Amino acid sequence: xxxxxxxxxxxxxxxxxxxxxxxxxxxxxxxxxxxxxxxxxxxxxxxxxxxxxxxxxxxxxxxxxxxxxxxxxxxxxxxxxxxxxxxxxxxxxxxxxxxxxxxxxxxxxxxxxxxxxxxxxxxxxxxxxxxxxxxxxxxxxxxxxxxxxxxxxxxxxxxxxxxxxxxxxxxxxxxxxxxxxxxxxxxxxxxxxxxxxxxxxxxxxxxxxxxxxxxxxxxxxxxxxxxxxxxxxxxxxxxxxxxxxxxxxxxxxxxxxxxxxxxxxxxxxxxxxxxxxxxxxxxxxxxxxxxxxxxxxxxxxxxxxxxxxxxxxxxxxxxxxxxxxxxxxxxxxxxxxxxxxxxxxxxxxxxxxxxxxxxx
Length: 360
Ligand code: NAD
Ligand code: UD1
Fold this sequence. Notes:
Elements (H helix, E strand, L loop, with lengths): L7 E5 L4 H12 L3 E6 L7 H10 L3 E5 L5 H10 L4 E4 L6 H6 L1 H22 L3 E7 L22 H19 L4 E7 L1 E3 L18 H9 L6 E4 L11 E2 L1 E3 H17 L4 E5 L5 E2 H12 L5 E4 L14 H7 L7 H14 L9 H4 L6 E4 L1
Parallel strand pairs: 1-2, 1-4, 2-3, 4-5, 5-6, 6-11, 7-10, 8-13
Antiparallel strand pairs: 3-14, 9-12
């Protein structure tokens, strides 16, 4: 079957949290991968960890997608069959403070990437979108027909990128894209070698819980217990990052088969409250998680969870890993790496990987 052939895949942002896990799934499927990353929000150390997991050198190019000339050179050096595009800035709060930086990084980078893909005749793209494009949903579960409406500049960049890609697909019938709307990715690779390593104070709840369990933070602040949800705390659709990683592999197969373009939700379809998450984590880790209820966080909504049935129908994909596995694997990563990858400081950061490097 054509979809079973192996490909050379450019993974933009492949050193990041979801990108690195997806690299393991791509390698397992037999694809050759080339990572392109500027390490703005990741550590070059992930490359050696990846190499240990996949058992082979991991090729990586240090570059910023905002540099058109660097992206052009990248496509001259390699013959890619497809691209998976994770590279973006993603912190909602920061995006309010630095909207220009978010638009510049996310949109300009994507324009350069799409331009080079088109020039090089690379016509298959898997794109990281987000449930953030649904804003405050009118009802749950959310399906792909739901009204789109963003509530922050980061979300707006995701929506603009989705639209840009859609316009490109219309303009060129040979260009195929899979637009994957992730809900709340958590957990880590079962080896404990790679995982989520947020810089500074975590914005998202799971890494925060992990750092409380590890003793790096005193207690979790739960943002509101007066939502119209069963226990009053916010409800989200947490999805194991390895299930998410596998979805990229099947989406790529779908594009390679030529079955058309795709926009799908990636979630479990099950809403979990913050308190449920805390208790599941305590059971999986054996650690107690002290918490206090504080005011709601600006911009938060009560309940967000997916209707993932379209992904099941089109891709034959469904989640396999439950909440216990998400908590267990997140905790394994955290306890094996209490300080994450221990990123180099800004000063040392420029040296470990020059402009081009293959980790051997
Ligand atoms: P991440 O920050 O861990 O990974 C993104 C990677 O892209 C990082 O390694 C970063 O250094 C790199 N990068 C950013 N800008 C770049 C540029 N201009 N040039 C080259 N590299 C660049 O984030 P993640 O959690 O792995 O998210 C991956 C993608 O998924 C992002 O597009 C994000 O918006 C989307 N997403 C994430 C979540 C989530 O909860 N993590 C949810 C929905 C969608
Ligand atoms: C956030 C982003 C969203 C992004 C998603 C995944 C906002 C407003 N939205 O969503 O755009 O796609 O992350 O990266 O930031 N919570 C606490 N205490 C904490 C942290 C969170 O109680 O310290 C609660 C939140 O109120 C929410 C739930 O935990 O109810 C999940 O929060 P979080 O992990 O930040 O994800 P989202 O808010 O869904």
